[in-house]
Specification:
434 Repressor (Amino-terminal Domain), 6 helices, mainly alpha
Length: about 110
């Protein structure tokens, strides 16, 4: 004997997308400000995005999408700080001097902690 009737497959429940958490929104805002400061450095150096990206050691499309999305990567932030003598603390939170001499990088970081 065979099956008398065939059950219909149940529809899959729709996945509900979680609302963005407040902490995530705050983190996105911080990353966006870092990206803005990197663009500010690029404009101050009078470089195109391609030239700036090559100095950071990345492809220009990667840099462009990073700035467009407002999500800079850690290697890009560190690369900008080292390549252009930018205070990493200034890049991250806007405090301190924008430019520092590379030999004083460690000293500037220690002074900002005090």
């Amino acid at each position: 004997m065979g099956i008398l009737w065939k059950e219909k497959p149940r529809p899959k429940p729709k996945r509900r997308r979680r609302p963005t958490r407040p902490v995530q929104r705050k983190w996105d805002a911080v990353l966006g400000r870092i990206a803005e400061r990197m663009e500010q450095v690029r404009r101050a150096e009078n470089l195109s995005r391609r030239q700036f990206a090559s100095r950071l050691g990345m492809h220009w499309t990667t840099y462009q999408s990073m700035i467009a999305t407002g999500r800079p990567t850690l290697p890009a932030v560190c690369g900008a700080a080292m390549a252009f003598g930018i205070n990493p603390r200034w890049l991250v939170d806007g405090h301190g001097e924008q430019r520092i001499r590379l030999q004083n990088w460690y000293e500037a970081d220690r002074e900002s902690e005090v």
